[in-house]
């Protein structure tokens, strides 16, 4: 029987790899933000048979709540075992999960819960105040319960008669598996609808990968510090391990000082990374034991600074395999430098894969000449150009249609192609700031900063950051003749902290007399980006610009 859901894939894998380890979470990661004052002494370990059994127990509880195929449940379960157990249990019922990032503020969670039309929110006991405040703030009406109280939930379907009448709906490849929210150029985060097929396609890509990314069945141990609220950890590493009988080593986050020790102690053979990680590790004092001596086969990730790529591989003894992908594409439609030539140090992401058609277009919509930069357009080969891609943006058909103009996914990323066919990442076309793997909408940050009564005009852009890829740079024009000093810049940041996750806060604030505007009084984004870069490159010369990056800590 063909596998049509994530849960069915777990069933198949558990039958083949029953006693093999599926999930390992170190004790330190179990202790992190656990809600308990006492540290966890033991790591979490579960075999395929054990994770299936615990998921089935939850499935039995969820099946009594009144949830049905197509319903959605928000889960705030962090990078912990419960995330997997609840996800698999709900997927077995055909219920879509909406992962909630615990770093978000109440207003951000309110938007996510209201927009996604969830029927239930589940979280750890110490996270319930956040969920309850978000539900109350948005005026929503649905249960909020701890992860151990599922059996207490009884959902009312009195206002859902039309949907209940469709009792014939069955789980399929196209059934929603998750909605992941990703910030784009339009302000509020967009909800990417991701089907079972999307997740299975991502896992199949990893299962079938050759070259540097070849996985040995029943052998690999993949360590990732990336959050399960993002595509990489949820669809790529989890599904890749599940479909090859490997063990997922899920960390709570990236801890630079203990990272190497954790990789050794857990026996990781594959690691996943973001560009910020090599940068931070290379800034740490070199140690004689930095070289992993063949334990780690490869690192899989994106965004390594070109100047860090070769030095990292030489120091730590394994290749960093650069890849390109988006939440909208999944791992099944990624472009990856899995074979030579990788052109280390040139932001090379490999060549056009066999399953994709690609085009690079200029601003006029014409294909660029070889070697010239252009926006990347992609589609699946064959009669279904959207196979394995996201199903669309929830409640935003206009944005979905715009993304899929003329049957191609317009990625908003600028690439160039070398003479040998290798593709190289150049820049982002969209007004999106990518800081440490988080996509930040400049418009969302602008909207929040504009609520500050002291500010007349605000424009936000990205500036390069050697460690984190991009940093948030805010250009502000004051309403009154207020002294442009650091204390005011810090006040602006703190005013925004109540509404924005810490990573979205401005890392720099510059006071300007006026913003560069278009004829229609909109910010000239290209000019702002150029100005911001010039300021950061010689910030000591600007008395009106303040570096606030140290204040962005949680």
Topology:
Elements: H1 6-16, E1 21-25, H2 27-31, E2 44-47, H3 48-62, E3 72-76, H4 81-92, E4 96-99, H5 106-116, E5 120-123, H6 128-137, E6 144-146, H7 161-164, E7 176-182, E8 190-195, H8 196-208, E9 221-224, H9 231-242, E10 247-250, H10 256-266, E11 270-274, H11 276-282, E12 298-302, H12 306-316, E13 320-324, E14 335-336, E15 348-350, E16 356-361, E17 374-380, E18 392-393, H13 397-403, E19 409-417, E20 423-428, E21 432-435, E22 438-441, H14 442-449, E23 455-465, E24 469-478, H15 486-497, E25 508-511, H16 525-537, E26 545-547
Parallel strand pairs: 1-10, 3-4, 3-5, 5-6, 9-10, 9-11, 11-12, 12-13, 24-25
Antiparallel strand pairs: 1-2, 7-8, 8-18, 13-14, 15-20, 16-17, 17-19, 19-20, 21-22, 23-24, 25-26
Brief rundown of the structure:
The protein is an alpha/beta fold and 554 residues long. The protein has 16 helices and 26 strands. The protein has a domain at 432-552: ANL, C-terminal domain (GMP Synthetase, Chain A, domain 3).
């Amino acid at each position: 029987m063909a596998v049509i859901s994530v849960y069915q894939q777990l069933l198949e894998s558990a039958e083949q790899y029953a006693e093999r380890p599926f999930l390992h979470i170190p004790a330190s990661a179990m202790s992190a933000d656990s809600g308990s004052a006492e540290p966890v002494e033991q790591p979490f370990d579960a075999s395929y048979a054990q994770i299936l059994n615990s998921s089935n127990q939850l499935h039995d509880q969820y099946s009594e709540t009144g949830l049905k195929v197509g319903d959605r449940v928000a889960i705030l379960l962090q990078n912990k075992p419960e995330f997997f157990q609840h996800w698999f249990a709900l997927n077995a019922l055909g219920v879509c999960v909406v992962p909630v990032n615990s770093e978000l503020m109440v207003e951000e969670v309110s938007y996510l819960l209201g927009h996604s039309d969830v029927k239930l929110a589940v979280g750890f006991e110490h996270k319930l105040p956040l969920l309850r405040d978000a539900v109350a703030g948005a005026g929503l009406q649905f249960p909020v319960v701890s992860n151990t109280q599922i059996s207490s939930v009884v959902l009312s379907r009195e206002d859902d008669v039309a949907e209940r009448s469709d009792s014939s709906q069955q789980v399929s490849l196209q059934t929603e598996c998750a909605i992941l929210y990703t910030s784009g150029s339009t302000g509020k985060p967009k909800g990417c609808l991701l089907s079972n097929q999307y997740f299975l396609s991502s896992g199949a890509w990893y299962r079938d990968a050759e070259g540097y990314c070849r996985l040995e069945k029943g052998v690999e141990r993949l360590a990732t510090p990336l959050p399960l609220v993002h595509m990489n950890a949820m669809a790529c590493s989890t599904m890749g391990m599940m479909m090859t009988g490997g063990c997922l080593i899920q960390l709570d986050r990236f801890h630079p000082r203990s990272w190497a020790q954790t990789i050794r102690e857990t026996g990781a053979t594959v690691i996943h990374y973001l560009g910020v990680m090599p940068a931070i590790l290379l800034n740490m004092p070199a140690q004689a034991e930095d070289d992993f001596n063949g334990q780690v086969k490869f690192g899989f990730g994106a965004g390594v600074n070109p100047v860090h790529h070769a030095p990292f591989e030489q120091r730590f003894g394994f290749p960093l395999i650069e890849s390109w992908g988006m939440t909208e594409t999944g791992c099944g439609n990624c472009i990856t430098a899995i074979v030579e030539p990788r052109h280390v140090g040139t932001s090379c992401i490999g060549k056009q894969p066999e399953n994709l058609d690609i085009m690079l277009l200029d601003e006029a919509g014409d294909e660029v000449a070889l070697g010239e930069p252009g926006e990347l357009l992609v589609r699946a080969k064959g009669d279904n150009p959207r196979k394995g891609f996201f199903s669309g943006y929830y409640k935003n058909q206009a944005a979905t249609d715009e993304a899929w103009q003329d049957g191609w996914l317009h990625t908003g990323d600028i690439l160039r192609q070398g003479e040998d066919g290798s593709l190289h990442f150049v820049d982002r076309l969209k007004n999106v700031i990518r800081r440490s793997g988080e996509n930040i909408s400049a418009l969302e940050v602008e909207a929040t900063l504009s609520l500050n009564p002291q500010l007349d005009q605000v424009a936000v852009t990205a500036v390069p950051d050697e460690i984190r890829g991009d940093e948030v740079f805010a250009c502000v024009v004051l309403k009154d003749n207020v002294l442009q000093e650091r204390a005011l810049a810090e006040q602006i940041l703190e005013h925004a902290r109540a509404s924005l996750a810490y990573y979205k806060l401005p890392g720099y604030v510059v006071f300007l007399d006026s913003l560069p505007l278009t004829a229609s009084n909109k910010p000239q984004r290209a000019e702002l980006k150029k100005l911001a870069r010039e300021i950061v490159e010689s910030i000591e010369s600007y008395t009106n610009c303040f570096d606030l990056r140290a204040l962005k800590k949680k």
